[in-house]
Amino acid sequence: MGTTRSYRFRNYTMTPDPMGESTFAAECVSGDDTDCGAASGEQAEKTDVDRWIAEHARDTGHGRYRRTAADYALAEPGDWQ
Predict the structure, then answer these.
(1) Dist CA 23 CA 72 (whole Å)
(2) pLDDT of residue 10
(3) What's this model's pTM, rounded to 2 decimal places?
């Protein structure tokens, strides 16, 4: 499931790090002049972020959010070209 890229005449394969944990987060970007700025904080599960969004939308009427996901990757060098 990795991708291969060449840099400085060497191939590198990027693969997900099985030891790293993914994180998810959301920030409310609703607002006319400025964004609301309320944030979910980093969560281990995407469903927890979705729940936070639903609760914030219910409580505030805000409807626009920026969601992010982060993970860890391994860059494994391949053969010289």
Answers:
(1) 10
(2) 75
(3) 0.75
Q: Which two tokens stand for residue 55?
A: 């609760």
- Phi-psi bin for 50: left (phi > 0), alpha (psi -120 to 50), beta? alpha
Distant-in-sequence contacts of 3-12, Cβ < 8 A, 24+ apart: 4/78, 6/81, 9/80, 9/81, 10/77, 10/78, 10/79, 10/80, 10/81, 11/77, 11/78, 11/79, 11/81, 12/75, 12/76, 12/77, 12/78
Give the span between the Cα atoms of 21 and 43, in whole angstroms: 10
User: Would you say residue 21 has pLDDT above 70?
Assistant: yes
Residue with tokens 């053969």: 79
